Each structure stands twice: as C-alpha cells, then as structure tokens.
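Please decode residue identities from the backbone states below.
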C-alpha cells in the first residue's frame, strides 16, 4: 500500500476525486458538486467523457425511469439525451403506465459532447486527463490517487467508476484476444492489483457488442422503416420553465432519423451453427457469466433453435456518420464469419463492416462488499459505482453514480448519508439489491424488481425525488422554480379534470375507438378517464379544456386519476415498510445465537450484515416470521438496555 509521503507532492486537492468519466463517473462528479464538494474528475481520455461503449441508446423498460430519477436529482443523462437523441419511442404504451418506458436512440458523438458541456458548467468540477495507477492511502483510508503519468492528487473521498476497464480482455473468435477496456482503449491493471492486495474480492463478468456497418453499403429497398415516434415528452424536467411543452410540440430535439428492421434468417443461422466452436463464448475462450437479458446471437441460435428468424435493427450512430449499429447481433465469432453472416441478411448482401463485434471480460467487485451508500467496507473513503459493481447498462451506472457522488460529498462534510428507499425509486431498488443480495450475473433493472412499480413511475420521478433533492440543497433557484411550476401544472391538470364535464357529443367519437359504452349524459372528465384506453390529453382536446397545460403534467395527472385505488394500496404498503424498514440493526448483532430464527436466516443475516430491517427483509430466505422474531428480539434488547 502506498502511504502519502508528502502533501507537497500533490498537484491539487479536492473533497472528492472521481476515477473514470463514463456514465457512473460523470453523474458522481455532478452529484458531488451539487452537494457542495470540490471535485476532480480523472479519466484516461477527455475525448471519451460520456462515451457509450455499446448501443447509443438511452432508456427502455425500467431504465427509462432511472434516467428520469437521475434527472430529478440534477443528473446529466436526461439533459444530454434531450440534446442528442435522433429517435424516440415510448415503449409499452399498450400496457399499463407502470411499465411505460421512454427509449431514445442518440447521436453518439453529440451525446458525448453534450455530457462534457453540461459537466463543465459546474464550476466545482475539474476535469483531468490521466490513467489512475493507484490510490494513495493514509492508513486504512483513502487520501488521493496517482496517475500513470506521475501526477498526484489529494482527496478525502474517491469514487471508482472504471467500468469494463479492470483487466479487460477483448475476444474476437477463439484465437484473438486483446487487452483493452473497450475497442481501441487500454485496459487498467494496476488498480486491480492494488485492490486485490487490499483484500477486496474480485470476480469476472463478460459482455459483448455487435459489428457496426457502413450505411452506404446497405440496400434499403425492402427493409422495414421504423420512424421516430412523434414524441411529446422531454427527458429532462429542467427545460420545463423555459419553454413548457404544449400538445403537438415536437421541435425540441435534433432532427429525428429512422431505423430499419431486417432479419437473420436460415442461411445466417446455419453459418453461426457451423462456426459456433470458433466463437469466443462457445469455443471455451470465455468462462465468465454474461448478461442473460442481452444475449449474443450465438446464445439465441443455441437457446431458440426453432425460431425461424431473429429480428435485427439497423440503428444510425449519428448525424455526422453513415455508420449503423446492428442491434441484435452481438457476437464474438471471428471477424470473417461475422462478415459472412451479415451478408446473408436481407439488405446486407454487399455490406461493409466498419467495426467487428467482440466480447469483453472484465473485473468487477461483488457489491455486497459495500454499505448502503456504495462505500467500501474495507477502505474508508472509497466508493464504487457502475459496471465495477457487477451491473450492466448506462442507466444503472448513472444511477449508482448519483448515489455514490452524493454520499461521498456528504461523508466528506460529515453529514448524514442519503439512502433512497425501494418505495421511493428504482435507484433505491438498485442499490438495495446490489448491497444486500449481490449479483451472480450482470445486474440490470426490470420493473419486476420493484414492489412499488405503480407509484414509482417514469412520469412522476420529479415529484418523488425533488423533495429529497431540495432538502439536500441540490438545486439552484431557477431549478426550484421549475420544480414548483411542474408540480403546479400537475395539480392544475387534476383540478381541470375534476371540475370540467365532457358531453356525450364531445366524448363519444373518442369512446367509440376504445370499445367502451357511449355516455348517457355529461360526466366529469376525471370519471371518464378511468375507462380503459381513454387518455386525459384526448379528453381535454375533445372537451376543449386544458390547452394551456404542458402535456407531461397532463399525463401524470391522468395516471394518478386512473389508478387512484391501486396507488393507495401501494402507498399503504410503502408506509408499512417505511415504519418497519427504517429500524436499524446493530452492527455486531449475533444472529447465529438467535434460535428463534431459521438456520438459513441466521446464516444469511450473518453473511450480509444488513443495516436496516428493510434490507434484512429483502434477503432471499429471510421470511416474515424471521423478521417478526428479529423485531421482538430488538425490542427485548431495547427494554433491557433501558432498564440497565
Ligand atoms: C463491449 C461492450 C458491450 C456492452 N454491451 C452492453 C449491452 O449490450 N447492454 C448494456 O446495457 N450494457 C452494455 N455494456 C455496458 C455499458 O457500456 C456499461 O454498463 C456502462 O458503460 C457502464 O458505465 P460505467 O460508467 O460504469 O463505465 P464505462 O462507461 O465503461 O466508463 C468507465 C470510464 O472509466 C475510465 N477509466 C477506466 N480505467 C481508468 C483509470 N485507471 N483511470 C482513469 N480512468 C479510467 C474509462 O476511460 C471510462 O471513461 C457494454 C459494454 C461494453 C464494453
């Protein structure tokens, strides 16, 4: 371990140093700065700040809600997506609002530049180019870092967000292996060695990416075109005050571009089957676990042998390039096989490959080694966020970045930690799942991971989280005004719906399309909107009311009205969890000696050491009756303590 020899050797000192400027690192830096810290953001190349390693897409199921939550706490991801997106879709609109999912395809270069621009608007953040070689320690606590270039910086807290770069190894086929953190970028080995020596457990995961192709070599005739949905949604609430959205306002973002749909069919499938043994993943070159929900094309062929064809999306990489991302064809087959497979696909028989697909293996640190703020239990002042914690995805990384950055800043200033509950946010679910359950495959969020998915929605992230952000003084005066304006707009939309009637003549053409009965007489809009398939914006338009209200606020009001009884149930469950879940468990509690608990619960509680009752409740194998007995024991000890 390196001990700081002389403070004079430090080039500069910060409250918080962040290592890596991917999605976790940039958010951690901004969150720490908003929380009042001075921040040094050290990353291997300033040009790759905000770089998307794989698909230039943000959002999707559950992930879209995380982007909104990151945004509600003042993060960058939603703001950068608004500036960079070239295609938008609201997924799952046919299903309930709990699973509505905004997803955007971004211009990769524009996104990177947007992140850097937004980041540099924070005066407290200093961006530094450098590859971190080691942490500087003062006894058991972090004191700064040193880069490969020999620059030393001091800090009271360090947030590590080095993504897939920890001893990263790229695989293309079974015989090509390249050390790297991502194609064309060096892996990072020194830090891993130091953390191993400090006794941290390190494991390996893998992930993969498809080839990219030159759009000029594609024959588009016959391919199915998928246009951007005409969207009425912003990703970020921060534009709200400047120019609130009205119905039919689609002018905020860069020019929208389409995607194309094609298919991997019989010939391509046969080629993959023939060459399967040459795939890094199936030929034995990679043993580590990959993301089950982002399968490689090899996985699809093996696991779904009866599927006639597999859908592929050709997605534009940006306005400034003809390159296309072949979504659905993640692979670690040898490059010549990749080309041959692509040329079997309709529209791609003359295709030129710009970049080969590959798989990558990398280090991660099992997150059960962290506390609920994502701070290492082994090294004080060291936080971990993003892919290093065994997650996958830009959004999961960004969410952890916010939690780690905020808490690192608060720890430095000796303030109470911020722990977001599962009932408050997907960020709460994410962090709680990671630190209490750990991961056995790259972790991604799903709506099914949340017990409160009707209340924890993408449209209401601001109302859920802005009271927390305001209490932590994360916003400036202009932002506070935006938040209040948005809350007022939702209240107004609700009030209009509860006050105004809609007549049969106005409503019936609309209701006819939904298969519900026509109105017999004028009815309150708030009642009609409860019918399936009927939306509040449509009712407002038909009744000629609420035209002045921003569309996002009207949609939030609609969901609150439509699902009022379900929401009430979830709120009661959340209150119960809150009352019980906040109960803190003593650090050295002797669970093994607690014979009223099952042996499984005793062992798991001893291994996981939950800090609160809510965390104990989320450990698989710890039953409600175990929890009840634990509460009884805590209460007994409290009485004994009080008597003593
Ligand atoms: C090939 C590939 C395919 C992927 N496919 C998918 C997918 O299909 N679906 C999905 O959801 N996710 C996928 N991902 C994962 C996704 O890219 C990550 O989840 C996300 O980028 C993680 O963000 P992060 O901030 O944790 O790390 P990253 O985005 O990896 O950022 C890490 C940052 O740390 C910097 N850095 C590293 N080491 C050092 C050091 N020692 N000193 C200074 N700076 C350093 C890097 O330069 C970089 O800026 C893929 C990733 C890769 C590489």
């Amino acid at each position: 371990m390196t001990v700081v020899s002389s403070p004079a050797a430090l080039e500069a000192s910060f409250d918080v140093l962040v290592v890596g400027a991917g999605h976790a690192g940039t958010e951690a830096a901004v969150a720490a700065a908003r929380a009042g810290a001075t921040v040094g953001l050290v990353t291997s190349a300033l040009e790759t700040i905000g770089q998307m390693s794989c698909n230039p897409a943000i959002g999707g199921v559950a992930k879209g809600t995380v982007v909104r939550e990151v945004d509600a706490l003042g993060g960058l991801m939603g703001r950068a997506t608004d500036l960079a997106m070239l295609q938008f879709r609201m997924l799952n609109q046919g299903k309930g609002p709990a699973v509505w999912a905004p997803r955007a395809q971004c211009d990769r270069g524009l996104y990177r530049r947007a992140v850097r621009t937004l980041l540099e608007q924070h005066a407290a953040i200093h961006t530094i180019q450098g590859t971190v070689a080691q942490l500087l320690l003062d006894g058991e606590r972090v004191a700064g870092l040193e880069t490969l270039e020999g620059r030393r910086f001091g800090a009271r807290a360090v947030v590590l967000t080095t993504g897939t770069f920890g001893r990263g190894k790229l695989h293309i086929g079974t015989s090509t292996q390249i050390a790297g953190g991502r194609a064309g970028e060096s892996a990072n080995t020194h830090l891993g060695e130091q953390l191993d020596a400090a006794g941290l457990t390190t494991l390996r995961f893998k992930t993969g990416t498809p080839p990219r192709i030159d759009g000029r070599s594609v024959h588009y005739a016959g391919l199915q075109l998928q246009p951007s949905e005409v969207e009425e949604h912003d990703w970020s609430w921060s534009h709200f005050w400047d120019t609130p959205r009205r119905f039919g306002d689609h002018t905020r973002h860069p020019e929208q571009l389409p995607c194309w749909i094609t298919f991997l069919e019989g010939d391509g499938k046969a080629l993959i089957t023939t060459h399967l043994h040459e795939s890094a993943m199936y030929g034995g070159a990679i043993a580590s676990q990959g993301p089950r929900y982002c399968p490689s094309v090899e996985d699809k062929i093996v696991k779904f042998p009866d599927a006639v064809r597999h859908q592929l999306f050709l997605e534009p990489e940006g306005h400034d390039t003809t390159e296309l991302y072949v979504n659905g064809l993640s692979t670690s087959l040898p490059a010549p096989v990749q080309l041959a497979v692509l040329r079997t696909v309709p529209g791609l028989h003359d295709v030129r490959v710009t970049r080969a697909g590959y798989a990558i293996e990398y280090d991660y640190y099992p997150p059960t080694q962290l506390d609920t703020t994502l701070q290492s239990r082994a090294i004080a002042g060291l936080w971990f966020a993003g892919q290093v914690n065994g997650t996958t995805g830009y959004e999961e990384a960004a969410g952890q970045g916010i939690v780690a950055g905020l808490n690192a800043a608060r720890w430095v200033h000796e303030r109470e930690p911020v722990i977001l509950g599962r009932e408050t946010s997907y960020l709460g679910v994410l962090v709680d799942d990671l630190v209490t359950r750990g991961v056995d495959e790259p972790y991604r969020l799903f709506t099914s991971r949340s017990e409160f998915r009707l209340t924890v929605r993408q449209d209401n992230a601001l109302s859920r989280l802005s009271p927390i952000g305001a209490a932590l003084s994360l916003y400036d005066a202009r932002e506070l005004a935006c938040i209040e304006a948005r809350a007022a707009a939702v209240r107004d939309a609700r009030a209009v719906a509860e006050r105004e009637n809609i007549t049969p003549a106005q409503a019936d053409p609309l209701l006819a399309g939904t298969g519900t009965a026509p109105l017999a007489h004028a009815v309150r809009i708030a009642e009609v909107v409860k019918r399936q398939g009927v939306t509040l914006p449509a009712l407002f338009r038909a009744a000629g009311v609420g035209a002045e209200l921003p569309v996002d606020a009207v949609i939030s009001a609609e969901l609150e009205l439509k699902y009022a009884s379900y929401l009430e149930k979830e709120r009661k469950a959340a209150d119960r969890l809150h009352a019980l879940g906040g109960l803190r468990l003593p650090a050295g509690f002797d669970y093994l000696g607690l014979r009223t608990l099952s042996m499984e619960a005793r062992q798991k509680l001893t291994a996981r050491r939950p800090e609160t009752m809510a965390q104990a409740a989320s450990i698989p194998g710890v039953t409600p009756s175990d929890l009840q007995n634990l509460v009884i024991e805590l209460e007994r000890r409290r009485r004994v303590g009080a008597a003593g």
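Observation: The chain is about 35% helix and 20% strand.
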